[in-house]
Description:
The complex is a heterodimer of chains A (100) and B (493). Chain A is 33% helix and 4% strand. Chain A is mainly α and 100 residues long. Chain A has a domain of 48 residues: Histone, subunit A. Chain A has a two-stranded antiparallel sheet with strand order 1-2. Chain B contains 16 helices and 11 strands. Chain B is globular, with a radius of gyration of 21 Å. Chain B: Keywords: ATP-binding, Ligase, Nucleotide-binding, Protein biosynthesis.
Amino acid sequence: MASSSSPLDPAVVRRIARLARIRLADEDVAQLQTELGSIIGWIEQLDEVDVSGVDPLANIGAASMTLRDDVVTDGDQVDAVLANAPARSGPFFTVPKVVE
Amino acid sequence: MTLEFTLASARDALRSRRISSRELTQAHLASIAALDPKLHAFITVTPDLALAQADAADAALGRGEAGPLTGLPVAIKDVFCTKGVKTTAASKILEPFVPPYESTVTSNMLRDGAVFLGKLNLDEFAMGSATTNSAFGATINPWQRQDSDVALVPGGSSGGSAAAVASGMALAATGTDTGGSIRQPASYCGIVGIKPTYGRCSRYGIVAFASSLDQAGPFGRTVEDTAILLGSMAGHDPKDSTSVPRAVPDFVAAAKRGVKGLKIGVPREYRAEGMPAEIEALWAQGLDWLRQQGAEIVDVSLPHTKYGLATYYIVAPAEASSNLARYDGVRYGLRVPANDLKDLYEETRAAGFGKEVRRRILMGTYVLSAGYYDAYYLKAQKVRALILKDFTEVFTKVDALLTPTAPSAAFAIGENADDPVKMYLNDIFTVPASMAGVPGMSVPAGLDAHGLPLGLQVLGRHFDEETVFAVGAALEKAAGFTGLPQIRMGEGA
């Protein structure tokens, strides 16, 4: 597999946390490095399996995708949609200013 | 009195008016008030709603209009959206969330007249094998070792469901199973649980963990009870494109078929190294019970079994990292205020997710990230194809498989907590069936040397839950499992 057996680099831990939009405290990086490193070491046992000529399986579902009728089935639910909003203004969700 | 009833006998008592739904519901609410401070199986109890539903059920019963679940008090794992009742997935990030809609599974149960007692505890976002990862505290197993009162885990992730049903706080409960989250807690708590075929129950309105694996299913104290409840939960739903348009069979009738003439496979790869002798012996005993009732036992091989867990711990976190991207502090759930949007996302998600969920999101992000995708995620999908092929081939030779449900009985809170991989090994026997999407049931079959329950697992073909119920009922009959947990409502209470 792509990664070596060397421990996960702290920079890699920080990079994936940034991709996942989760702020990490500095003291968490070392622990996650160990934990994720041990999980990755363990899943590398899949290196033993010969998968040549095998197609990847994304979904075992037996349902075939079908199209439903192109009609409106729901709507006019602004209050229900916004009922759980942590912050709102009229019929809108609000977030901190994005564009100056 | 709650443990004197099964779902089936309570239904009969209601229909013959020997008891009212209000009485039955009050008895269960009293059990919850007495036991839940010790067990912590519930996140939310809804007594007013339950009594209102009970009164409506009594009125319906009075008119002779009884549905399959009319007036029966049951409880719901807190990952099923329930309209107007908060649904947390045991996560801080969803703590304030009150769904404006009902999941399809719980809608089906309400259509059939069920009374909902409340929402049950779980590992946060259903990620765990012990229900110790809940943001609202661990659930305690109602069973204890004979020689010690140390608190044991109920299994997970549906630990609240299993503990509530085993102790008599609910007649039955819903759960979800992604890698064993119904079967393993059922085994640890001495009750029955079935994960049906992927596609049998709608996932609409269930908080998503790993969408290609998540499947809802019932817990009950008998095989028949799970057959009754699954019959209500299941069915095609246009709102979930992976739910399958097939008629729901009569699972209760299927449970009475017997096993005469069935071929039962024993997968040799499930003889895990270091398996306790008593689990090995119980497995052999289970095969004997089926043989005595007319089944033929056949040795079979599922050669990729040992890779199931590692495959699962790539696929499930990958899907989870994608599914949980929606928790951003903008539209619902927790928000940590910040000065810009990126900080708002990062601070909200740092504060809202627990350690195991964070670990899995990061794992999933890693295996999906540029440069690693082919090596991990694509490879795992290919191994998954081989695992499915193992099952497809073996089911041309046998009608069902029998294995242990878990490699041990319930362990103490805090055990296995130092190393995530050690905790993951609890799911070694349940994960392969999840990867293949086939149905699996755990049936309580005996006690270990400490007096703790052990389950056997029955696996069947896609959409052949009927055979799984037949085999499960045969095991139940032979095992005559009558054990009761130490923490329960006393007789007459």
